[in-house]
Here is the input.
Amino acid sequence: MTSSSRRGSAGHFSPNGYSGRGRRAQIPLSVAITLFAVLILALSIWTWRSTQYQTPDGREEIVAWGINFLGPDIYTLVHQFEKENPQYKVIISSSAERDNTADNQRLLSAIAGGVPPDLYFFSRFATGEWASRGALTDLTDLIESQSPGDPYRISLADYYDWSLAEASYARPNTDEKPRLYGMPLTGDIRFLFINGEVFKQAGLIDQNGDPTPPKTWEELREYARRLTRFRKPGDPASGIERIGLAPGFGAGFGNSFLYLWAWQAGGSLMNEDGTRVTFDSPEVVRALRFVVDLHDDVGGATNVSAFQQSLSSVEMDPFIRGQIAMKIDNDWMFRFMALFRPDMDFVIAPAPLPADEVAKGRKPITWAGGFSLVIPSTSKNKSGAFKLMQYIMSEKGTRLLERGKQELAQSEGRLYLPEGLANRRLYESLVKEAIFDNPRVPQTFKNAYRVLQELMPETRYRPVTPIGQLLWNQQVRAFESASRHEFDAEARAKGMDPIQYTLQRSAAPAVRQLEEVLQPPPPRVVNWTPWLAGYSVLSLIPAVLIYLAFRLRRKVEGYRAGEVRAAMMFISPWWIGFACLIGGPIVFSVVMSFTRYDVMSPARYVGWQNYRDVLSDPLFLKSIGNTAYMLMRVPLGLVLSLGLALLLNRAVRGIGFYRTAFFMPAIVPLVAASLLWIWIFNPIQGPINQLLAIVGISGPQWLQDPAWSKPSLILVNLWMAGSGTIIWLAGLQGIPQQLYEAADIDGAGPWRKFWHVTVPMLSPFILFNTIIGVITTMQIFVEAYVMTPDGLPADSTLFYSYYLFKQAFQYLRMGPASAMAWILLVIVLILTAIQLWLSKRWVHYEQS
Amino acid sequence: MNRVERLVCGATTEISKPGVNDHNRIKPGSGGRAVCETFGNGPNIGAAKTLPPFQGLIIPMSPTWGLRPRLTSGAASRLRLTNAGFIRFGLHLLLLSIAAAFLFPFVWMLLTSAKTDEEVAAGRWLPALPTHQWESPYETVDAAGKPIAAGVSLLDLQVRLLDASIISLKPDWRHSAAGKGNELRPQPDGTVRWHYRFPAPGDVAIETPLDLPADFNLQNLHKLILSIKSDDSWHRVDAELTVGGKTWRSARSTYLAQHRPMSIIFQPPTFEDETYQPKIWVPLKQRAGGSGQSAGYNNLASGRTDQAALRIIITPSSTPRAIWGKLTRNYIRIFNSIPFWEYLGNSLLLVVLTVTGTLFSSTFVAYAFARLHWPGRSVALLILLSTLMLPEQVTMIPSFLIWQKLGWYNTLNPMWVPTFFGATFTPLFGSAFFIFLMVQHMKTLPKELEEAARIDGLNHVQTWWYIMLPQVKPAAAAIATLSFLAAWNDFLRPLIYLRDQGRFPLSLGLLTAQIENRGDWTMIMAGNVLMTVPVIVLFFLCQRYFVRGMSATGMK
Here is the structure.
């Protein structure tokens, strides 16, 4: 309650005043109602028109999402396509995803709603996950039934085998032959990048003076040791200045992952028929041990992460800057080299194998990721989508698209370096034209493309399995925990080898999930009709209750019929909105929390299973821990904004300026703010670390260091918390001056006045802000979603809502996600109740 | 290139010997701080760096460390610090430095949006300001400070037809006014160096006949691609294409930015103008009558479609013009890569509807909670508040199903219709919160007015409209601002509910462009500025109401 609001209301009213007032400042009610009706009418007409799906010219629509990733000339291509196939109209929509593998909420919603795109640009890696749920169209027959004379005929023989295999899926444990669910487009493979300058300085050169790449694991490790430079020579603890081999992964630090090391050691992460997670095989253990050794050689994973790629971001790759002598990365790296250092001296080579595997005569191995085009199984225009797919995959289409990329690169003054294609014939001819026969391309890139082309056919791919995403995340976890020696003590206590123990631990969720997939689904399918009917009845109950309460307690409470009727009318918009738009989804999510539901197939009851799973999930606990940590921002923000308000309350001049300055951050769109802070936190290019570097402090890795990621997010939050200042100022100005005068008479110092006058008078504000702060913190999402995707690094920013989001939209497990939502509600309710209960002791309400 | 470094010296001993030279000013700060400001990059930078290096950090010292005894008498008499003045001065300094810290990210955003790739790669703090170059090639330093020779080279010329075929041209460049430093020097690698000098004829231009095939038809021309190496002079390049007696001129100029090779794509109106693709090309517009300027080959070209000429013109940029060109470059890139005005229109529509809806629902519903006496009121309020606590992700799918069943997929409706019913989900910016704020505010208002109104025979709706609304204006202003922000910033729901890019609001459109240009920080920051400026302007305009409103709602 503030004086200003009272002042505002005083004098508004004179006995005949409303009409007079209405003339001056208010539109008559009838006019308002008319305007309102006109608005609603106009909008409904507009809506009706914009939802008419028939295109005016009667053409069939093909909705294609994400194909603008194929370069700017996709529009020319579509134009050509429409000219040749006048019966179709193509609607291109950006897939607008931060990351094509992990952000499925848009596609999933569209599939659930029965309005999927007809053609979708799809991370091939997820084929198993989505095909196993029947979400993708089987292309095998469509391809076989192409007419031989079709100029856009897709010939599978042109494609690298691995790309087709990764786009095919057969249910594990069956004799089914794999069916093709997507047409592979791209293939990015991994190899060893070598900084030529560093090698030359270290004398690792052959008689021609060219760098000599390591041939075996043993050599690799030796080179890595030799090329690593510490700040104080010979003292790893002093910090790494340059790392010989980036042993980890992440943007700029490489892209090998445990998959590659395991294949090199002769093993794999999953068995051939996809029925068993083989993290426990001796080859995988050996691979992980080697990775851990690589970390330990340079002072351990903490040391590495202190140095970690984050040293710089993708944009200013540490390899380009010479801070990494060798790394295993994919050909996307070329993009950044072309952008920032086209003249760099570098060599690429196949990633080496262990010496004994080389001795066995095994060839170098690499693995590919990439994208496919898929047709969702519920697409309404499959034949049109397939036609467009053919067109895009054809030589004509591909060349057109590549040319577009080339023009784009060159219009920005960048070198055009074609990225890997799944179509071998086309890829090789493109590389020949754009690289080998192009005099403008530096020799380094020509050599690199030679190695690349030799390596391409020897490529493996990640197992096509319904649990692909989880398998991926768990191998990342194993890699991280083992190199950080996270579970060493635990393992020793159990008398186990730490590496084996870590692998076993990381494999557990994947093993569990695979079991679930392999078993027949739970028998009881959810029938939504009774739920709907029940809910409709339920939503009428409040009306009945209110009526009963009104009849029974009329005398006691003094309800008046007219007033209650009016109240019902005033409450009705909210009640309708709540019943339809909030209550409905809530009931749905309650039911979902007791089912197994992946949106694409019917939900099935599993009882309390989801709650049990969630509560026993170590990541769940971790996410609660992370979120609890973030609660720190509530008191910090409070202290900061209150402090600022106290300073401003001294009636300084220019208060308007300061107020604006403190408030401005709060009105910046959260996404914009997040993008801005990624840039500010950039460990190399960012201003903070540049400033610290001037002082001689090597700044932390901010968002990339598990120890700093949460404080970084809190910092961003404090920046935005200045907005509270305005509220506090209002509160401070509402404190009657007499109270301070009285305190003065009692001889109270400034400190005592603060504690005994200011704080009690502000306490209702403090309580309110704390409660809201706790609620928003428990739901913290967007910052993490934009700034530290996937909870990186090391799950340190995996917050509750984000984990929930991942469960739902990444692992397609709506059941556990819903269960988590309800657990969250309980947690927040308890926290709020505690605060309200505690508030009785310290919150002071004016007796007015 | 003046670098201004602002240093805060940490040691009082340094203060007693003010200034190494005239460029060095040491200002007495208060609260025991001294502020050194160093201008220019003369020897003083070195001197400053030998100080205990606490750049940008404020080292708090005890306020009792008066500066007076250490200052020269002149300074002391000027300042004449009383104790109160001293404290106020310190207060201001403290506030200023905190304000600077708060504003710094904005400054950084603006700075980055004015940089080039080269400057970002070199880690420069400030974008270099270009100056007028009257001659090219010229000696300069690159973004990293290394001396280089900048010059323009013509690399390549291609014509692309609408059927996607390419004609590689062998241009025969000639200067329209050779001599006086204007010349073309063919290089062994097939490129041509273009030397030019101002202010000889104003503009400089070169021309070449285009050796187009006999069956060339202008209707088939898709684009003309000129690859050049730029000289970072920020002069402007235009093209004039003469085919069959008609002249087409570029509708906007391209700046000679950075030192890299780049290609300029000139394109007459095509189907691509209607698409949502990034418009990386320079449109060509037909000139009325215009054959005036390209005198050289015009006669040759006239009448026959197979003979054509291309004229490339460099218009000199004065220093302010060059600076303007550099400052706006990344913004122009954003404007070209998204249909900005269309997105903005969608955003504004969404914002207006959302704010209207929120104001309606919050005041209407709050009236029942705050002013009317009915059974179940407190329970209903609890239910209302509890919706603040559920994460919205979990209702994403079911909500989608509802809207889709209503046939409102791919419309803006799912974003604003709920606001009329007080049924948006997000905490802090959700309707429940707004209703709650309004309830709190209405509760503080005196009852006498309504009682009088009832005696006058007003019904509840009339009371709400004529009595209640005028009194809740401050709170409504605050709620309007907050809901404006919510609608303006939301990207997750538009992402799910909208299919056609033409319906995207600016938040999603910009985010999409930013995602597709990952790593292109200069452009991302320019997009951020465009996203942020409207809200800041709005805030400035309604700051007064907003502040009043925030205090009125009390947030308690």
Notes: Chain A touches chain B through 174 residues (CB under 8 Å). Confidence is low (pLDDT under 50) at residues 1-24 of chain A. The longest helix of chain A spans residues 561-592. The domain at 618-842 of chain A is CATH 1.10.3720.10 (MetI-like fold).
